[in-house]
Specification:
Largest sheet: 6 strands, mixed
Shape: globular
Distance between the termini: 52 Å
CATH architecture of the largest domain: Alpha-Beta Complex
Order of helices and strands: EHEEHEEHHHHHHHEEHEEHEEH
Number of helices: 12
Oligomer: single chain
Structural class: alpha/beta
Helix content: 40-55%
């Protein structure tokens, strides 16, 4: 039987897969990419006798290729917390999906495994901006304040590394990063001992420092929109910056727009818990948009639609 592991290259996808492979060791083909590379199942060729494990990518965005794999005879295990739409009824599909909010894919896996490798789920939750969920999980291990802070910084740095228009923008390709992570049973050991982590953490802090002087492009009752310059650091820091800025607001939303090399924009959106709108619903209103309630994005926003984006943002989150 061939194992094929398909996962989002951010903290949640990495940590969800690490938990599963600690519970079920197997040599697997890795299929992943930058955070916005959502249609990963299009790259998978599998058939009878193969097991495809999918983590932290939208079923709705991969529906056609999921059906193709199931019809070819492959078995598919699907774990995710994004909007899924209608879930296919097929004997070859095992779907563990929960888009109710306040949890990430690694927390779904943690629940399945009875908390056996919970520190990985704590790091993933911090990386996904679910700080309270991470603290609640950490209290059940239990983890002390110092360990929790290490996992917070680890999750944020793993997440930061996934942002970019292509893998050329990243410090480390996600598949390579996972192979290094797979050498550690404990994420705290990775954070303390692994030189690669020090490189990611330093890169995140440097990019955030570069973004610190950027002024809002638009502000209003709905929140604020930031437009970053055309630079590699902009493409890397977009999601991390959006999360940091959103953490400074009790209401409304934050959007960070980053130039693509083709002249269009990528958008990262974060919505406060008390906001009236949902990030994923807003972003699904644009081609290539999706995510979850608290955090979502748009892969390609044409330049001519920038004014429409601002107007719809102002109306959605006021």
């Amino acid at each position: 039987m061939r194992h094929i592991d398909v996962f989002n290259g951010d903290a949640d996808g990495l940590c969800a897969l690490r938990q599963l492979r600690l519970a079920e060791p197997a040599a697997a083909l890795l299929v992943t990419g930058v955070k916005r590379d959502i249609g990963l199942l299009a790259r998978v060729r599998a058939g009878a006798g193969d097991l495809v494990t999918v983590l932290d990518v939208s079923l709705d965005r991969n529906r056609a290729d999921l059906l193709r794999l199931l019809e070819s005879g492959a078995r598919v295990r699907y774990y995710d917390h994004h909007y899924a739409g209608e879930v296919p009824a097929h004997p070859g599909l095992e779907a563990r999906l929960d888009a109710s909010g306040g949890l990430c894919t690694a927390m779904i896996v943690d629940r399945l495994l009875g908390g056996r490798f919970r520190p990985w789920a704590v790091a993933a939750a911090f990386g996904d901006g679910l700080d309270q969920a991470a603290l609640d999980l950490g209290a059940r291990v239990p983890l002390g304040p110092h360990a929790l802070e290490q996992l917070r910084e680890l999750g944020r740095s793993l997440n930061y590394n996934a942002y970019g228009e292509s893998e050329a923008d990243l410090h480390v390709p996600p598949a390579e990063l996972y192979r290094v992570l797979a050498g550690y049973d404990d994420p705290l050991r990775f954070a303390i001992e692994e030189p690669l982590y020090a490189r990611l953490d330093a890169g995140r802090r440097a990019d955030l420092a570069a973004a610190s002087d950027v002024e809002p492009y638009w502000t209003g009752l709905a929140g604020a929109i930031y437009v970053l310059p055309d630079a590699d650091w902009s493409r890397r820091v977009s999601g991390t910056l959006a999360h940091q800025l959103a953490g400074q607001r009790a209401h409304g939303a934050i959007a960070v727009l980053t130039p693509r090399r083709d002249g269009a924009w990528m958008a990262s959106l974060r919505v406060a818990a008390g906001a009236r709108g949902a990030a994923d619903e807003f972003c699904r209103g644009f081609p290539g948009g999706g995510g979850r309630r608290e955090a979502a994005g748009i892969d390609r926003l044409p330049p001519a639609e920038l004014d429409a984006f601002v107007s719809r943002f102002a109306a959605a989150f006021r």
